[in-house]
């Protein structure tokens, strides 16, 4: 499950829960607002905890990460061998063989 799917689920959950109110009459509206925020935070924590193991990570793939400017690939004749994964926001340039 990608982060965009998780964000969509959280937004839909927030929209659905914002219309629900408690049946108990309370004198302090700020207290009921805090209770609703706490319940929503607990539900979102449980939801994210359930999907946390499914998020992709570089440790699971076994490929180390390269810093920007470091060598990320090797040319072996007509083929390229990947040495490491570039950090997020950069990619491996096939001409320079470095993360840029």
Automatic annotation (TrEMBL):
Its main location: secreted. GO terms for cellular component: extracellular space. Residues 1-19 form the signal peptide. The keyword Signal applies. GO terms for molecular function: neuropeptide hormone activity. It holds the Pfam family CART. Keywords: Disulfide bond, Secreted, Signal. It is found in: Secreted. GO terms for biological process: adult feeding behavior; cellular response to starvation; G protein-coupled receptor signaling pathway; negative regulation of appetite; positive regulation of MAPK cascade. PANTHER family: COCAINE AND AMPHETAMINE REGULATED TRANSCRIPT PROTEIN, COCAINE- AND AMPHETAMINE-REGULATED TRANSCRIPT PROTEIN-LIKE. Belongs to the CART family. This is Cocaine- and amphetamine-regulated transcript protein-like.
């Amino acid at each position: 499950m990608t982060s965009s799917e998780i964000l969509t689920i959280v937004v839909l959950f927030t929209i659905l829960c914002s219309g629900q109110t408690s049946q108990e009459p309370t004198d302090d509206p700020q207290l009921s607002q805090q209770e609703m925020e706490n319940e929503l935070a607990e539900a979102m924590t449980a939801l994210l905890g359930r999907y946390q193991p499914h998020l992709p990570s570089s440790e699971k793939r076994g490929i180390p990460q390269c810093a920007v400017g470091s060598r990320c690939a090797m040319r072996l004749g007509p083929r390229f061998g990947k040495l490491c994964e570039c950090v997020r926001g950069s990619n491996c340039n096939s001409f320079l063989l470095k993360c840029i």
